[in-house]
Design brief:
heterodimer, A: mainly beta, about 0% helix, B: seven-stranded mixed sheet, globular
């Protein structure tokens, strides 16, 4: 199975900060990479699909980039409602998720 | 409004069985692949299984093959997960979700709607 490695596992940020989360695949997955946001006690929510396509209704401060093995999720200006855990998921082959990145308030 | 509501979770002894259900509404259930994803307390997400619209194709993560069975009843707009030979490490919240294919390949998919989850605890 393809392993997905996210970094960092956690980070602290302030409102207004630019935040970047990285996801690395153990082999090339083309652009078959999705990003989800999960808040405590809630189900995950899709943010980005196909590495860089913004899901309908998701604020434009979220963006994704990358292809092959290296991908990033960027929040251009961190908002209070963005403090959550973020997961990447590859759909190139047997579905796997990254370990998650918890974004906390500094 | 799309809604997915899981039920059937609970406490079960090791070696026991449990059947989860997921009631779907707000969309044409029979037109979508569906999936189960689980999450152990404080841990990451783990894909469990997918099922095609008519139930003719099913895929499982290797570690659960032979123990878990995904099924659906399109007449009842319901998805199921039969879990047998349960182990302590199966303790998790189990989510059902809708699968959306955004391109014509079998790889271009994402999970666009999720239920609130059902907690399964395997303990003696």
């Amino acid at each position: 199975d393809i392993q997905m490695t996210q970094s960092p596992s956690s980070l602290s940020g302030s409102v207004g900060d630019r935040v970047t989360i990285t996801c690395r695949a153990s082999q090339s997955i083309s652009s078959y990479l999705n990003w989800y946001q999960q808040k405590p006690g809630k189900a995950p929510k899709l943010l980005i699909y196909a590495a860089s396509s913004l899901q309908s209704g998701v604020p434009s401060r979220f963006s994704g980039s990358g292809s092959g093995t290296d991908f990033t999720l960027t929040i251009s200006s961190l908002q209070p409602e963005d403090f959550a855990t973020y997961f990447c998921q590859q759909s190139y082959s047997t579905l796997t998720f990254g370990g998650g990145t918890k974004v906390e308030i500094k | 409004e799309v809604q997915l509501v899981e039920s059937g979770g609970g406490l079960v002894h090791p070696g026991g069985s449990l059947r989860l259900s997921c009631a779907a509404s707000g969309f044409t259930f029979s037109s979508y692949w569906m999936t189960w994803v689980r999450q152990a307390q404080g841990k990451g997400l783990e894909w469990v299984a997918n099922i095609k619209q008519d139930g003719s194709e099913k895929y499982y993560v290797d570690s659960m093959k032979g123990r878990f069975t995904i099924s659906r009843d399109n007449a009842k707009n319901s998805l199921y997960l039969q879990m047998n030979s349960l182990r302590a490490e199966d303790t998790a919240i189990y989510y059902c979700a809708r699968v959306f294919y955004y391109d014509t390949t079998s790889s271009g998919l994402y999970f666009d709607y999720w239920g609130q989850g059902a907690l399964v605890t395997v303990s003696s």
